[in-house]
Amino acid sequence: MSIIYIGDRETGKTSLALELANPSSQNVHVLYPPYSQLKALLYRDDLGRTQSTDANLATYDRNIEVEVTLPAGSKKIHTTWIDTPGEIWRSSWQKTNPELWNTFLEAARNSEGVLLIVPPYREIIRPDDRIDLDDFVTQQQWIHRFDRWVDFFQHDCPRIKHIALCLNKADLICGVDLKQEAQQLAYHPYNARKNWMQRHDYVFKRFFQPVRSQLAQLNQRASGLAVKCFITSIQNRELLELPWIYLGTYLQHES
Fold first, then answer.
1. Contact 125, 172 (CB under 8 A)
2. How far apart are CA 40 and CA 216, in angstroms?
3. What is the pLDDT at residue 133?
4. How far lies 102's CA from each of 67, 79, 97, in Å?
């Protein structure tokens, strides 16, 4: 099966991917590239964090092979990780960079699933002197960005069957206790507190109400498409793995 791993810049995609590859995994394992190689590529020891994507790059993509362990066996997910600048959505940019735009579209059109990473918006960030609110968009800007993704899914992703919509950096959100959230949402094959629909409803009602009309529109216009909402953080492995387990559960089997 093939998915695309996407999101605007500064959403935490790099940190999430690196943490996913950490050997201390549970049900989701990155087979390629190995953790040491990915860390050498993405992590800056001098900064003590992952490095930001070069702003001069219009797009870049990397391939990651992920294995999900399920009760019925293991599934491999071939993932194309694509980063994009905001300019890519402008028709002027698309006309000026037709090869890059077509490469982006080709990956999207051939994918069965999407893992979309979005950041929290400014109004729900908890008060903390160590957090610069200017690093986060306002709720209105967040909604506007999501409108672009909805248009993209509707017009340029004809094969997708499942979208895992991930609100990342959940540890920064006011009122969120990651341990408690994981107890509610974590994947346990035989004794989970919630099934996939119940998890989605729980997360959607708490965190995605500002885009409820957009999600309804997406579900109505795209026949056979399922959208599920998640929260993720590099500080909680169970929440981090959950969208990958979902995609591995429902997308076409590949051994």
1. yes
2. 41
3. 92
4. 28, 18, 9
Residue numbers in the chain where pLDDT is lower than 50:
55-56, 254-255
- Mark 172-194 as b/e (b = at least 16 C-beta within 10 Å): bbeebebeebbeebbbeeeeeee
The CATH number of the domain covering residues in 2-250: 3.40.50.300
Task: Return the pLDDT at 186.
Answer: 92
- What does the buried/exposed string (b/e) look like for 93-105 if buried means 16 or more CB atoms within 10 Å of the residue's CB? ebeebeebbeebe
Q: How many helices (H) and strands (E) does the chain have?
A: 9, 9
* Structure token digits, residue 160: 């997708």
The residue among 36, 22, 11, 4 whose CA lies nearest residue 162 is 4
At 55 the pLDDT is 47
Q: Rounded to 5 degrees, what are φ and ψ at 182?
A: -65, -35
Q: Tokens 């605007």 identify what position?
A: 8
